[in-house]
Amino acid sequence: MDVINVTILFFAKGRELRGQREDQTAIISQPSGADLYKLVVDKFPCLEPIRDHFALALNEEYIEKSDQIITLSEGDQLAVIPPISGG
Amino acid sequence: MGMNRIEILSCPLNVDKAVEFVTSPTSGAISMFIGMTRNNFDGKKVIKLQYEAYTSMAEKELNKICQHIREKWTVEHICIYHRIGQVIYDIVNILEVPVTEASVVIAVSSPHRQESLEAVHYAIDSLKASVPIWKKEIYDEGDSIWKENKECHWTVTT
User: Can you list the positions of beta strands (E) in A1-87?
Assistant: First the structure.
């Protein structure tokens, strides 16, 4: 299975757990939405404390935790979005 | 033709500018929501607030909110400002005059009031559910917490 290099962004609690705002990671190119959530925690075990409490965004669009296949491209931007508190 | 203005700002928000932007001779109503920073939570004294945004995505999500408003209601102009960065309370002044700042300003104009009132209500509820902006409260005893909106469906506390 193809592997793709993506940029991954961390914010708020996620940024503090990771200790940085941005990183690169290699991920299989066609995971399901649900698999992608699991893969991100596998790649970044520091996210364990928030594993059931974050959303993912791919190129600034939320990804559903579903069976739907996501097609990743080289250089895509993935973001870990902890519970939001704007307003 | 209705216009949208969306700004994520690291300086104090200007409520007058938001009103000015949405003012129009064909609109008989301007409705507004102003979210204010609070200097206390559960009896704890907040000395500092730290706002962080995924700015590019936040702007996209705010644009989607504007689009949805225009699909549902007949409104003229929409203005949404959100504060990021740090809001630091003056601990001396806090005892007498609590320093508060606007964290979010939403202004909508419409020919008739019901449309803009409903649109503003929808806008703040949607913002709290989907726009990637975070707030950390730092307390006078040295502890701190990232807040979580109850409207956010992946929040821990629901």
Answer: 3-10, 22-28, 55-58, 61-63, 77-81
- B99-121 confidence digits (pLDDT tens): 578 999 999 999 999 999 999 99
Q: Give me the domains of chain B, ranges plus CATH numbers.
A: 4-146 (3.90.1170.40)
Q: How many angstroms separate the CA atoms of B75 and B28, rounded?
A: 11
Q: Is residue A66 a contact partner of residue A38, using CB atoms and an 8 Å limit?
A: no
Chain A residue numbers touching B54 (CB-CB < 8 A): 9, 11, 57, 60, 79, 81
pLDDT in tens, B33-61: 999 988 888 888 888 889 999 999 999 99
Q: Residue B112, annotated ligand binder?
A: yes
How far is residue B110's CA from residue B5's CA, in Å, rounded to a whole number? 15
Is B137 marked as a binding-site residue?
A: yes
Domains, chain A, ranges and CATH? 3-79 (3.10.20.30)
d(CA B157, CA A37): 20
